[in-house]
Amino acid sequence: MSAVLHYLPLLGVAVVIIGFALRYNPVPVVVLAGIISGLAAGKSIGDILALLGTSFVSERALLLFVLTLPAIGVLERAGLREHARNWIASLRGMTFPRLLIAYLGLRQILSMLGLTSVASQAQTVRPLLAPMAEAAAEKRGTPLDINERNDVRAFSAATDNIGLFFGEDVFIALGAVLLIQGFYAQHGIELQPLHIALWALPTAIAAFIIHALRTLLFARRLDKSGQAGGSIPGGSQRTAADAANDASH
Amino acid sequence: MLRIEHAYWLTALFLVGTAVLNVRDRRWAHAAFWAVLATLLATGTPIIAAAKAHHALPAQLAGVGVIALALLSPKMLRGHINERSEAAREADALRLGHRLFGPALLIPLVTLLVAVLGGYAVIHGWHLFASYRMTLTGLALACVVALLAALWVTRARPSDGLVEGSRLLDMLGWAALLPLTLAALGGVFAATGVGTAVADLVRMLIPVQSALACVIAFGLGMVLFTVIMGNAFAAFPVLMAGIGIPLLIHLHGANPAILGALGMVTGYCGTLFTPMAANFNIVPVALLDLPNQGDVIRAQWKTGAALLVVNLILMYLLIFRF
Questions:
Q1: What interface predicted TM-score (ipTM) does this complex get?
Q2: What ranges do the domains of chain A cover?
Q3: Against a cut of 0.80, is the pTM above it?
Q4: How does residue A122 score in pLDDT terms, banded at 50, 70 and 90?
Q5: Do B299 and A154 touch (CB under 8 A)?
Q6: How far apart are CA B298 and CA B301, in angstroms?
Q7: DSSP B25
Q8: Contact check, Cβ <8 Å, A12/B189
Q9: Residue in B closest to A122 by C-alpha
């Protein structure tokens, strides 16, 4: 086989890059990438359809999470989200770093238990965490300026992502662990889900420590600029680490 | 005996219910989407069995179904979704309090229970749970138990389970399908030699006899592919087939469980860097009314970078030792 033919299936990867860069709907982009990659590998249309079909149904366990929706939906209808917000808001002594670090830890633990869908950017960050984080940050005595407010919101969104990613990987029944187990099974290596999940724990702990430290540093920066009576000169997006990076270049 | 197929059938039933509700609202694209997906889900086991017996037709029809889903996805616009008024929800929340958390916690609790103890549930030699994918069967059972508990706590009608579940499912729309589609793409990439092409590129670039070089190539490859694809699930099969299995496991004797777990979380670091992971990094920019597309990524990339270093070190220290 010539070298060019060998690398031709990589065209499928190019389709994904271009499709996502142009912000097309990802589902047709991904399916098209599969078809292109199959054609580039010299497969017939029939073979490609069969490959697409078997690959898809082999991974159907990834769809089982939707079974949680009826129960969650009924609870939401009865005010689950409202109750969670009222409860957290009634807790005194809830400072900005405590709030975000507690959320990070809680999100990680809930994700580890498979409760990934109890929180999300749309469900919790926008209506709950971001407003609460802004309010907690303003306990410093001065209101946030617009840049600081945006930073607090972005940091809240980031905290949700990090809590989700580095908790979900430890849950045994769905998502990452299952994908790993399924992949190895296809390649003749049989593993227990629990065995895989446990080895994701060190990273989950490291993620908590690193992001908690960054939260504390961010909170201190907010408090300092509050005492100085305004935004940090040079823009609130910058940190000491940024300055150090610039200096080293 | 409860088997994983029962979980798939139950899910298919829920999808059919959602399709019917969408037909009633004349949302044809949504109805067709969920109906096709329900069919694929319910018939998955015979499709795979037929393909193994070299009957290609059912798998080819499934392939046509996947293409239909892809064509329907862009038509799944988020329309008006009925939700109960906030005042009514607030009143219920005050009345029910912490009792609302109970049914939600039943889902992980029952799942864990089945995962840990399900193998011992034997009555007169009759196994309650089939051992194949027992945890997932447990999850399906847990969802049913949680729904019953939720209906009991909130005094809602059983039909509310379908209506509210469908509301959330329609809200997710095609996004519910994306992880599955990306995982399937990984399978296609592996079968069409994308993995080996990547592996050959890597072999040209690194000294494969060096375990450290392979670890770094695998880890950074996971990050790079995740950044490109926006999803570590899609990167995993490619990098595993290209570097993980042939070089790290077979050549250098790495432990597969540790390599899999750490490889995946290394990919997750890449998810924190990329606008391709739109639902995590771009959607919140819109939701939170932030000025720049990169604002969420800017807030989280340093955590991701530090964690990437930690993961590479853990990988090098652990996978060859256990």
A1: 0.80
A2: 3-58, 63-239
A3: no
A4: low
A5: yes
A6: 6
A7: T
A8: yes
A9: B287
